[in-house]
Amino acid sequence: MSDYGMMDKEEIYSKVLRAGRRTYFFDVRATKAEDYYLTITESKKFTNDDGSFHYKKHKIYLYKEDFSEFKEILTEMTDYIINEKGEEVISDRHQKDYKREDNFVAQEAKTPEDTKSTEDFTDISFDDI
Question: Which of 21, 100, 109, 113 registers the highest number of CB atoms within 10 A of its CB?
Fold first, then answer.
């Protein structure tokens, strides 16, 4: 049997999710015993200094006996992220105009009494030291 025939037999159902530089491939494949399993492949495109590019791929094999727990944990984790941070993407990699303001929350929480002006300081001469 040719490699093409084997690939044709293995790949049962496929979906692709394109997400910027990343592409996710979801493929249902068959084992030698004709049972099904899922492969999830993340493919990232990288550009070299000379303008050429290459891809890095990472693959997960997920078998039926793990579907229920995998789905349960994936749902729990994605729900947690959405509940904690919302659906809006806040990342400098995803939003070119994103500016991280580490002190924004801390500064916003201060009251005017917390903020000292230069009038509150005593003039000290270095000759006094």
Answer: 21
